[in-house]
Design a protein that fits this description.
The chain is built from eleven helices and twelve strands. The chain folds into four domains: 99 residues, Rossmann fold (3-Layer(aba) Sandwich); 34 residues, Double Stranded RNA Binding Domain; 58 residues; 102 residues, Tetrapyrrole methylase, N-terminal domain (Cobalt-precorrin-4 Transmethylase, domain 1). The protein is α/β, with parallel strands linked by helices and 326 residues long. The strands form three sheets. The protein has a five-stranded parallel sheet, with helices on both faces. A five-stranded parallel sheet has the order 10-9-11-8-12, with helices on both faces. Pathway: Porphyrin-containing compound metabolism; siroheme biosynthesis; sirohydrochlorin from precorrin-2: step 1/1.
């Protein structure tokens, strides 16, 4: 690796942006997600950057540029939109001992900004050392679909409770407890917007001294399919596929959607896994109920035309999830 991936502490530090145009504004937008103090260095600022200064969200330095500017800098962006000037300023920053990123000049960079999947405080960073930024964005898009929007709130709650768990829960039970928090019903509750319910479950488990025993309660999600393109799947459908212990594809053409299922999930493709297309909906329903009654989580991919008929006889808590965006 030419660049080692790591995370920098930004709270109480400066991010210095050398430039006052649109490119500088792009970096400022990114840095506003952090707790860093943003210092904008340019004779003049565009209207967006000037507004940040007026709101007190950034500071403006219009004077001379010397090494003292970078004494407390965690990171420096050079983006004056003048290639010669950028190269000159990069040398000044290096001489001051600060990490420098020269926009669109990877040969002058000592730090690169990755593609980011932001579920603060959970952050996924994807980099290709500048070799394939398009691929990095594609991976980011896939990760965005796999990590539910509220996951960061669950991670933040876990962080607030971590010291208490360490103090009050026996060491041998902690790993199973956190596995349950992030893989079990608390995460599922957060995913559907029931934050209070999730917090109550977690605190009850803490009071009981560990994760609850498996109650044997299974779940069934019915996904009516109107298109077999995996990249059109809804976020909720992908989440259910990632949680499932068993995924049944009622028709062989649904098989490409299995690439979004959990790696160790059991997979059944009617017409392939069972060697015949005559494995009826009623037969599939029996397999689903067997798994459900054993406490398993099941996803059933059926054609839209068969969705209502398929739902007959399934549990009352059946979840119907749109499989693809329309």
């Amino acid at each position: 690796m030419k660049f080692f991936p790591m995370f920098l502490r930004m709270s109480g530090r400066d991010v210095v942006i050398l430039g006052g145009g649109e490119t500088a504004a792009q970096k400022a937008r990114l840095m506003l997600k952090t707790e860093a103090r943003i210092v904008l260095v340019a004779p003049e600022l565009d209207v967006e950057l000037a507004a940040l200064v007026a709101e007190g969200r950034a500071e403006h330095h219009a004077g001379e540029i010397d090494e003292s500017l970078f004494a407390n800098a965690a990171l420096v962006f050079v983006c004056t939109e003048d290639e010669v000037r950028d190269a000159e300023l990069a040398e000044v920053v290096r001489a001051a001992g600060a990490l420098v990123n020269v926009v669109d000049r990877p040969d002058l960079c000592e730090a690169n900004t990755p593609s980011i999947v932001d579920r603060d405080p959970l952050v996924v960073a994807i980099g290709t050392e500048g070799a394939a930024p398009v691929l990095a964005r594609q991976i980011k898009t896939r990760m965005e679909s796999l990590l539910e929007p509220r996951l960061g709130e669950l991670v933040a709650l876990g962080g607030r409770l971590r010291d208490t768990v360490a103090e009050e829960m026996p060491r041998e039970k902690r790993r199973a407890f956190w596995r349950w928090v992030y893989q079990g019903s608390p995460r599922q509750s957060f995913a559907r917007g029931a934050e209070r319910e999730a917090a109550e479950k977690i605190k009850a488990a803490m009071a009981a001294g560990g994760a609850p025993e498996d109650t044997g309660q299974g779940s069934v999600a019915l996904l009516p399919v109107g298109s077999v393109e995996p990249d059109l799947m809804t976020l909720r459908a992908v989440q259910r596929m990632q949680e499932a212990d068993l995924v049944i594809c009622a028709e062989p053409e649904f098989a490409p959607m299995l690439e979004l299922a959990r790696r160790d999930a059991e997979r059944v493709i009617v017409g392939q896994s069972y060697g015949t297309e005559d494995w009826l909906l009623s037969d599939q329903r029996k397999a689903i109920m067997s798994k459900y009654e054993a406490g398993g989580r099941v996803v059933w991919l059926v054609s839209r035309r068969d969705a209502e008929r398929a739902a007959l006889g399934l549990p009352e808590d059946l979840e119907r999830v749109p499989a693809v965006r329309v």
